[in-house]
From TrEMBL:
Species annotation: Rotaria sordida
Protein name in the entry: ATPase AAA-type core domain-containing protein
The ATPase AAA-type core domain, residue ranges: 233-356
Molecular function in Gene Ontology: ATP binding; ATP hydrolysis activity
């Protein structure tokens, strides 16, 4: 075997390419291998999962007497742990000739969560680093087809071996540019990314008005995850009732977030939504969700101009909606009766929900206790959601201190992965 490896090494560059598994296989067995690529199954729709390298190795070492008898591995330096780790390796089964298992492009990630009830401990505790691999390649001779299929299925469907990638919701803002060289004409563009932190909400019903809110929430989530659709959702209530807090939570319920554009529209830009200058931008980003906060100033029935209302009607249920396919989520602080009644017509309005202005004393105490308020006995009157969260102890985090990502900022800053042993 050492002679085979030496011969293959002569034709293999030291850096920048994957290990030549197929050449090794051909050199040893003199036959072309079959190849299968396996990826872990997920318990949640629309989530990205990856194998946890240590868990996979422990499983296959223990169950299949597999060992790393080949002397070719690739190692990279991990700047956080200040150690080299195996970036790629090839495993073989001693008592079965003609099977190579290739773990390639292993990488360090953070903020992944367990795909099952079994807790997988981080490989490097600070910042919760995990060493993962997205796929496993198996090269084998055709006579081992049944064994390989069973082996692959066991790894794929064992969710104790995998981790779930974090869902990252981010907003983009609509910007407006005035072209002074073209008679002051206006154009629009999307700018920046605002990474949304997922807030801690342990009990939706407790926070937002009882069990009926579950039906509202599920209906909104189903609508958000439906492709090529349009419509309007209106969330209203007194200031401090938790509308923005809930929207942050809601955005992380979108399962196909990679196919969606979350666009924040300032309320003073509603008048431009069907502008000829803005329509090309919306056409470039189909299946977008437009989020408009504090829209009462533009949508009130008392407003002298109805252009803002007409624009929302056209986008949510008019002729434009068929071509642009945008969903609109708007919040406002005034009573529902203050809005233009055209917005409330069935067909275009998916859901409207009024957030309770306060929680009664019992529910306020329950919520306060769940979020870490130490002295809940001081609550002796109904309180708004904002006032309850303002009472929580300083050492209790409501949400992530930093935007949720799957990469370590220190690793990136130190050019993680570029130094090979």
């Amino acid at each position: 075997m050492d002679e085979i490896i030496s011969n293959v090494k002569l034709s293999y560059p030291n850096y920048g390419r994957d290990l030549p598994v197929k050449k090794l296989f051909l050199s040893k067995y003199r036959r072309f291998p079959r190849k299968i690529c396996i990826t872990p199954a997920s318990n949640e729709n629309g989530t990205n999962v990856a194998f946890h390298v240590k868990s996979v190795l422990e499983r296959i070492y223990g169950n299949y007497d597999i060992k790393n008898e080949l002397s070719i591995v690739r190692r990279y330096f991990h700047p956080c742990s200040k150690k080299y780790y195996i970036y790629e390796q090839i495993l073989s089964i001693p008592n079965i000739n003609g099977i190579y298992i290739n773990l390639n492009r292993c990488s360090w990630i953070t903020n992944y969560t367990n795909n099952s009830k079994k807790l997988i401990q981080p490989d490097y505790i600070p910042n919760c680093h995990f060493l993962i691999v997205s796929e496993i390649l198996i090269f084998y001779l055709e006579e081992h087809e049944i064994f390989v299929q069973k082996f692959a299925n066991n790894l794929i469907n064992d969710n104790t071996l995998s981790l779930i990638a974090p869902k990252i919701a981010n907003l983009r803002l609509i910007g407006k540019h005035k072209n002074r060289c073209n008679g002051g004409s206006e154009s629009f563009y999307l700018m920046g990314y605002i990474y949304m932190k997922k807030p801690r909400i342990d009990d939706l019903a407790l926070s937002y008005g009882g069990q009926d809110f579950f039906h509202v929430h599920n209906k909104i989530v189903a609508w958000l995850n439906k492709k090529d659709t349009h419509g309007l959702v209106l969330l209203h209530g007194a200031p401090g009732s938790g509308k923005t807090h809930y929207i942050r939570y809601l955005l992380h319920c979108i399962t196909n977030e990679k196919e969606r554009y979350l666009i924040y529209v300032p309320s003073d830009m509603i008048d431009y939504l069907t502008s000829p200058a803005l329509i090309p931008l919306l056409l470039s980003y189909p299946n977008s969700l437009l989020i408009i906060e504090d829209a009462e100033g533009s949508l009130s029935r008392l407003r002298t101009s109805s252009q803002s209302v007409a624009n929302l009607l056209n986008l949510s249920d008019g002729l434009l909606s068929d071509g642009i396919q945008v969903q609109i989520l708007a919040t406002f602080n005034c009573p529902l009766i203050s809005l233009d009644p055209a917005l409330l017509r069935p067909g275009r309005l998916i859901v409207q929900y009024c957030f309770p202005s306060t929680l009664n004393i019992e529910n306020a105490r329950r919520l306060a206790d769940s979020i870490g308020v130490s002295n809940i006995d001081q609550i002796n009157e109904p309180l708004s959601l904002a006032n309850i969260y303002a009472m929580r102890d300083e050492n209790v985090a409501e949400e992530q201190d930093e935007p949720i990502t799957s990469t370590c900022h220190k690793c990136v800053a130190l050019n993680y992965g570029e130094e090979e042993e």
